[in-house]
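Saturday, quiet lab. Running sequence design on the structure tokens for the scaffold JK sent over.
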């Protein structure tokens, strides 16, 4: 019996058909880059202070002194959430008393902003924060909107694989692209924060489902050598490119509704691709639809200028998996032995911490010194060398030390930020970007590393459980950023400390570089300190396993 790669070997690895699929599927990831982090600008919080009604009978002096000062960033600035009690100020102004000289302002009673807020328009014309007053007592709503988006990502990651297995990769890809575009468009007309947030959750579901469907479709269509490149650089670089477009759009469009509309409309450009991107022949064959699969392969041969053989597929070429009695495994097998339990616990912790660091730093760009648009662009650009470096590390160096080095770099520079003098702002930004570089590199490495540690029989479940921990980390990340309202360096101290901790944990994982991938739980590499158990001889070659689409499908979650 021949496998799919043997059947389609005559097509070659990098013909016109493969290039078309590679770049079009990678391009479908671009909207994920700017939609996923658009909340950075949609929920931007400008400088604000309490409104003093124009009808208040106050002198000019008392009007200027109506907002108390508070210490923020080492400087005395007007309070964002309090004002002096308006009734008292009106009486003092009517008596002709002067603030500061006749009346000690510190002794006056304060009150919350009962008449709303006035917002600076220096950076944003409008955001969901200014529209629905998500400040002061309601400032928790902004981070919650972001967390709800990542809740949608978590839910979407659960259902996307099942949907694509049942209905096909292509249908799910375009259905979820449409879902992401349609719900983003409806968001433009949101009439309340609640409506915006619920729609944002649905956008998150569509986004991850679109990503997973494109990822799996690419791994199943492309040949072995190109598959590795697609999974590591193709998808990631195009995601970073979409992320780079976000600050460019936001710089020229300062109104949140118009910005969201501008970010939504590119989704319509993918409609014509329905007639260009094919369904996965592998999936069609798994469904017994051999003629449709053969038609796609013949069309690919024609696109590549190759003459296809008279007979390409025959049912006898395919293994009847249903006839094979195989042992079934459950999620409980991830904790069955002390070794796999230890690896699972460590993987879950590491994935969650890396996700908190990556999304925390991405969402924190508006709080950095300098221009928010430039900082966001730098945060996106730094991902490109991070992905390239991680790809080179995966090809040439041990996994454990590569990932630990990336995590130590990311964590240590974040801890150093608090030591930078306040007047050297450029150095602070440089350290943040170095931290983002290290954590992004680790994020790219951890997918492959985790897939290599788990045996074939539970690899999908192992990486899936770790990825679920990553989603939980992304849900928590907005609240790490939120802590910056209490202490500017607290998010960096927490993220830096946790990242260094994950780097230390990584050093206790087994080294998988150059090792045959395990097929069974008994063949797994041992965590340091655990008793060695000999593995059987029938292990597959590690290079061939690394190129197995099943591994890469699992990492997509």
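Result came back. Writing it out in full:
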């Amino acid at each position: 019996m021949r496998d799919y790669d043997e059947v389609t070997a005559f097509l070659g690895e990098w013909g016109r058909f493969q290039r078309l699929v590679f770049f079009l599927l990678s391009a479908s990831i671009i909207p994920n880059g700017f939609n996923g982090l658009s909340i950075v600008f949609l929920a931007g919080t400008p400088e604000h202070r309490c409104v003093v009604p124009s009808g208040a009978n106050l002198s000019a002096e008392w009007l200027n002194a109506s907002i108390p000062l508070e210490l923020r960033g080492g400087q005395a600035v007007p309070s964002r959430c309090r004002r002096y009690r308006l009734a008292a100020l009106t009486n003092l102004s009517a008596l002709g008393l002067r603030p500061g000289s006749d009346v000690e302002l510190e002794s006056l009673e304060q009150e919350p902003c009962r008449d709303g807020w006035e917002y600076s328009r220096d950076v944003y014309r409008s955001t969901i924060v200014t529209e629905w007053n998500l400040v002061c007592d309601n400032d928790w709503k902004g981070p919650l909107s972001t967390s709800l988006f990542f809740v949608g990502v978590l839910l979407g990651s659960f259902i996307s694989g099942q949907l694509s297995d049942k209905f096909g990769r292509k249908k799910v890809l375009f259905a979820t692209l449409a879902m992401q575009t349609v719900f983003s468009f409806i968001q433009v007309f949101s009439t309340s924060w609640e409506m915006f947030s619920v729609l944002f959750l649905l956008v998150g579901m569509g986004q991850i489902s679109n990503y997973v469907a494109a990822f799996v479709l690419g791994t199943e269509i492309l040949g072995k050598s190109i598959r590795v490149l697609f999974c590591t650089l193709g998808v990631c670089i195009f995601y970073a490119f979409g992320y780079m477009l976000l600050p460019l759009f936001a710089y020229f469009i300062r109104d949140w509704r118009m910005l969201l509309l501008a970010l939504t409309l590119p989704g319509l450009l993918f409609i014509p691709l329905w007639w260009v991107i094919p369904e996965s022949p592998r999936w069609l064959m798994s469904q017994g639809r051999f003629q449709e699969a053969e038609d796609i392969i013949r069309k690919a041969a024609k696109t590549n200028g190759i003459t296809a053989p008279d007979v390409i597929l025959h049912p006898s070429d395919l293994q009847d998996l249903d006839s094979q009695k195989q042992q079934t495994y459950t999620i409980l097998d991830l904790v069955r032995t002390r070794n796999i339990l230890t690896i699972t616990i460590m993987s879950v912790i590491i994935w969650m911490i890396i996700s908190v660091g990556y999304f925390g730093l991405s969402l924190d760009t508006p709080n950095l010194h300098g221009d928010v648009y430039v900082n966001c662009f730098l945060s996106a650009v730094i991902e490109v060398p991070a992905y390239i470096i991680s790809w080179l590390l995966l090809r040439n160096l041990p996994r454990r030390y590569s990932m630990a080095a990336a995590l130590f770099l990311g964590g240590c520079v974040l801890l150093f930020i608090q030591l930078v003098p306040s007047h050297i702002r450029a150095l602070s930004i440089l350290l943040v970007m170095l931290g983002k570089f290290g954590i992004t590199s680790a994020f790219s490495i951890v997918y492959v590393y985790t897939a290599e540690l788990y045996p074939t029989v539970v690899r999908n479940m192992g990486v899936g459980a770790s990825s679920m921990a990553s989603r939980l980390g992304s849900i928590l990340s907005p609240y790490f950023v939120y802590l910056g309202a209490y202490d500017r360096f607290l998010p960096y101290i927490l993220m830096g400390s946790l990242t260094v901790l994950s780097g230390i944990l990584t050093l206790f994982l087994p080294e998988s570089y150059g090792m045959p991938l395990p097929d069974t739980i008994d063949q797994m590499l041992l965590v340091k300190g655990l008793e060695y158990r000999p593995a059987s001889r029938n292990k597959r070659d590690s290079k061939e396993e690394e190129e197995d689409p099943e591994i890469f499908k699992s990492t997509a979650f």
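Notes for JK: Residues 123 and 371 are 9 Å apart (CA to CA). Residues 319-326, 532-557 have pLDDT under 50 and may be disordered. Ask whether to fix the surface positions before the next round.
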